[in-house]
Design a protein that fits this description.
binds (2S)-2-hydroxybutanedioic acid; 9-stranded mixed sheet; 12 helices; 9 strands; about 350 residues; about 20% strand; alpha/beta
């Protein structure tokens, strides 16, 4: 009798345990919607993959901004949206990234504004030499109405403009000192492919050569170019200063990025996902601008510590000589491209801060 009772109790205990386990399992199966997205399971939900291609190193203002964007979007979407980043031109370079975006081979790129000026000439306004003088102005301009209208112009070429990112001011890195305008004479200068940059260097007496960013290192090494204009973070992260060890802090132009998406891909996204993307850009905007300034400052201090690198500043009279040589570029832009963008930008720059 006692034996039977024991058997009955053990049986009941095992049955209860089995029921508890089964119940918990069913509960978890039917509550999948509350679980984080599991990218090893298929068919439960549609995962969205965004391929983001860019041409610079990871430890640069654009490189870290792409990483920050990835982290924000993936977190906000609970892993439903995945951003895969391809830095250093490993997938596409300056020559083919726009086409790759249009063909939806990648969904986001962030080229320098200058690289769009051949398709959208109005954008040249942001490349006018010495138009923007300091970081405060740069931030104001890239977040302002003129830039917003420029970004909308991407619609003309069926691209969705998302935002502008910052990489500060361009300097001259060269194999021999460039201080006075006469030092530009006959100098072969690598630049991004852009008519206004071509005009700028011709007015200074140099010989501009347009190349892709990925070809700059070999161009200097193989003695095809003597100099380039670029930001300190791009010069330092690619070690250009090991060959172009004269750096002139001219701040003559700005380098900003237009972050853009394939338009059909954007239109295919549901409104929640679109909002996650725009919110992420908005949330990181100030951070991106500050990190870009810090990067350029920190990298400049490393260059200053390097005794093989010679750094020059332009004093006011010399800077005015550069400006004098370059001033016709403003009238050319106003006359041949778009006077209204130039006057809007100048107005924005002169408006007192609110
Ligand atoms: C360059 O080509 O020098 C730059 O546009 C590279 C970049 O993306 O910062």
């Amino acid at each position: 009798m006692v034996k039977k009772m024991k058997l009955f109790l053990t049986g009941s205990f095992i049955t209860i345990i089995i029921l508890i386990v089964l119940f918990s399992y069913r509960q978890s199966i039917f509550s999948i919607n509350s679980l984080p997205f599991d990218d090893e399971q298929r068919g439960l939900n549609e995962q969205i993959i965004i391929h983001f291609s860019h041409v610079v190193a990871e430890n640069t203002p654009k490189g870290i901004a792409a990483e920050k964007f990835k982290a924000l979007v993936e977190e906000k979407s609970g892993g439903k949206v995945v951003v895969q980043i391809y830095p250093n031109g490993m997938l596409f370079n300056d020559e083919n990234e726009l086409e790759a975006l249009r063909d939806n081979k990648v969904q986001i790129i962030a080229p320098t504004i200058s690289k769009l000026t051949n398709s959208l000439p109005n954008w040249q306004v942001l490349d006018l030499p010495f138009i923007i003088e300091n970081n405060e102005q740069l931030k104001k301009v890239l977040n302002g109405e003129t830039s917003d209208s420029l970004l909308q112009e991407l619609e003309k070429i069926n691209i969705k403009g998302l935002t502008f990112w910052n990489n500060g001011f361009k300097q001259i890195a060269s194999t021999s000192p460039v201080i006075g305008v006469e030092d530009f004479n006959g100098m072969r200068i690598r630049m991004m492919s852009s008519d206004i940059l071509d005009d700028q260097f011709k007015l200074l007496g140099a010989k501009p050569i347009a190349t892709s960013f990925g070809d700059v290192y070999s161009g200097i090494k193989n003695n095809i170019v003597d100099a380039q204009e670029n930001t300190i973070s791009n010069i330092y992260s690619k070690q250009f200063h090991t060959m172009e060890n004269h750096i002139t802090l001219s701040n003559h132009g700005v380098l900003a990025y237009a972050v853009m998406m394939n338009e059909d891909f954007w239109n295919s996204l549901d409104t929640d996902t679109q909002k996650i993307i725009t919110d992420s850009f908005e949330e990181m905007q100030d951070w991106q601008f500050e990190r870009a300034e810090q990067f350029n400052e920190e990298n400049l201090s490393y260059l200053k510590e390097n005794s093989a690198v010679h750094i020059y500043e332009l004093d006011e009279p010399i800077k005015n000589e550069w400006k004098e040589k370059l001033k016709t570029i403003y009238t050319q832009y106003e006359k041949n491209v778009n006077g209204h963008y130039l006057s809007d930008l100048l107005k924005e720059l002169n408006e007192p801060d609110s």
